[in-house]
Amino acid sequence: MIDSGADDCIFHAEVGEALGIDVRKGEEKSYSGIGFGELKGYRHTIEIEVGGLWVPCEVTFCYGMVREHPALPNMKQGLRYGILGQRGFFDKFKVIFDYVAEEIELRPRST
Questions:
Q1: Residue range of the domain that includes 71
Q2: Is 2 part of a structural domain of the chain?
Q3: Cα separation of 52 and 75, whole Å?
Q4: Strand pairing class (53-62; 9-12)
Q5: Contacting residues for 36 by C-beta, under 8 A, at least 6 apart
Q6: Nearest-CA neighbor of 32 among 78, 69, 72, 70?
Q7: Assigned domain for 90 exists
Q8: Does the residue 4 lie in any domain?
Q9: Average pLDDT in the 80-109 region?
Q10: Phi, psi of 101, rounded to the nearest 5 degrees
Protein backbone atom coordinates (compact mmCIF):
# COMPACT_ATOMS: atom_id res chain seq x y z
CA MET A 1 0.00 0.00 0.00
CA ILE A 2 1.32 3.45 -0.88
CA ASP A 3 0.78 5.63 2.20
CA SER A 4 1.77 9.28 1.91
CA GLY A 5 1.14 9.70 5.64
CA ALA A 6 3.55 6.95 6.71
CA ASP A 7 7.03 8.05 7.69
CA ASP A 8 8.67 4.74 6.81
CA CYS A 9 8.27 1.67 4.64
CA ILE A 10 7.05 -1.18 6.84
CA PHE A 11 6.66 -4.82 5.80
CA HIS A 12 5.81 -8.01 7.68
CA ALA A 13 8.94 -9.61 9.15
CA GLU A 14 7.95 -12.80 7.35
CA VAL A 15 8.63 -11.02 4.03
CA GLY A 16 12.17 -10.26 5.14
CA GLU A 17 12.68 -13.84 6.26
CA ALA A 18 11.39 -15.11 2.90
CA LEU A 19 14.02 -12.88 1.25
CA GLY A 20 16.72 -14.55 3.35
CA ILE A 21 17.27 -11.54 5.65
CA ASP A 22 18.22 -12.08 9.29
CA VAL A 23 15.49 -9.63 10.31
CA ARG A 24 16.50 -9.17 13.97
CA LYS A 25 20.03 -8.06 12.95
CA GLY A 26 18.66 -4.73 11.66
CA GLU A 27 18.44 -1.45 13.53
CA GLU A 28 15.57 -1.71 16.04
CA LYS A 29 12.67 0.72 15.68
CA SER A 30 9.28 1.02 17.41
CA TYR A 31 5.95 2.13 15.94
CA SER A 32 2.46 2.81 17.22
CA GLY A 33 -0.78 3.16 15.30
CA ILE A 34 -0.57 -0.19 13.54
CA GLY A 35 -2.76 -2.68 15.34
CA PHE A 36 -2.98 -2.55 19.11
CA GLY A 37 -0.13 -1.07 21.12
CA GLU A 38 3.51 -0.71 20.20
CA LEU A 39 5.08 -2.63 17.33
CA LYS A 40 8.80 -3.46 17.17
CA GLY A 41 10.64 -3.74 13.90
CA TYR A 42 14.08 -3.98 12.40
CA ARG A 43 15.33 -1.68 9.63
CA HIS A 44 17.23 -2.95 6.58
CA THR A 45 18.11 -1.61 3.16
CA ILE A 46 16.79 -3.77 0.33
CA GLU A 47 16.20 -3.22 -3.37
CA ILE A 48 12.67 -3.06 -4.71
CA GLU A 49 11.53 -3.17 -8.31
CA VAL A 50 9.09 -0.53 -9.51
CA GLY A 51 8.22 -0.46 -13.21
CA GLY A 52 11.39 -2.33 -14.18
CA LEU A 53 13.60 0.01 -12.14
CA TRP A 54 15.45 -1.37 -9.10
CA VAL A 55 15.95 1.13 -6.28
CA PRO A 56 17.43 0.84 -2.79
CA CYS A 57 14.73 1.16 -0.15
CA GLU A 58 14.94 1.39 3.64
CA VAL A 59 12.35 -1.00 5.05
CA THR A 60 11.45 -1.86 8.62
CA PHE A 61 10.38 -5.49 8.99
CA CYS A 62 7.93 -5.91 11.88
CA TYR A 63 6.63 -8.94 13.75
CA GLY A 64 3.05 -8.95 15.00
CA MET A 65 1.54 -6.58 12.46
CA VAL A 66 -1.81 -8.36 12.86
CA ARG A 67 -2.68 -9.02 16.50
CA GLU A 68 -5.63 -9.77 18.71
CA HIS A 69 -7.29 -6.91 20.56
CA PRO A 70 -6.14 -7.06 24.21
CA ALA A 71 -9.73 -6.99 25.56
CA LEU A 72 -11.49 -8.77 22.67
CA PRO A 73 -9.65 -12.03 21.91
CA ASN A 74 -11.69 -12.79 18.78
CA MET A 75 -10.99 -9.38 17.22
CA LYS A 76 -7.82 -8.97 15.18
CA GLN A 77 -6.51 -5.68 13.91
CA GLY A 78 -3.44 -4.49 12.13
CA LEU A 79 -1.89 -4.34 8.75
CA ARG A 80 -2.18 -7.39 6.54
CA TYR A 81 0.17 -5.99 3.89
CA GLY A 82 3.17 -3.68 3.66
CA ILE A 83 3.35 0.10 3.54
CA LEU A 84 5.44 2.19 1.15
CA GLY A 85 6.02 5.45 3.03
CA GLN A 86 7.99 8.71 2.92
CA ARG A 87 11.51 7.47 3.72
CA GLY A 88 12.49 4.77 1.27
CA PHE A 89 9.76 5.31 -1.33
CA PHE A 90 8.39 8.85 -1.68
CA ASP A 91 11.95 10.18 -1.43
CA LYS A 92 12.81 8.04 -4.49
CA PHE A 93 9.76 8.78 -6.66
CA LYS A 94 7.52 11.63 -7.62
CA VAL A 95 4.07 10.20 -6.91
CA ILE A 96 0.98 11.54 -8.70
CA PHE A 97 -2.45 10.42 -7.49
CA ASP A 98 -5.44 10.88 -9.82
CA TYR A 99 -8.39 9.95 -7.64
CA VAL A 100 -11.08 10.37 -10.33
CA ALA A 101 -9.22 8.26 -12.91
CA GLU A 102 -8.16 5.81 -10.18
CA GLU A 103 -4.55 6.04 -11.32
CA ILE A 104 -1.18 6.43 -9.64
CA GLU A 105 1.81 7.59 -11.65
CA LEU A 106 5.35 7.07 -10.40
CA ARG A 107 8.33 8.94 -11.80
CA PRO A 108 11.84 8.21 -10.53
CA ARG A 109 13.56 11.18 -8.92
CA SER A 110 16.93 11.99 -10.42
CA THR A 111 19.77 11.24 -8.03
A1: 9-108
A2: no
A3: 39
A4: parallel
A5: 67, 68, 69, 70, 77, 78
A6: 78
A7: yes
A8: no
A9: 87
A10: -80, -5
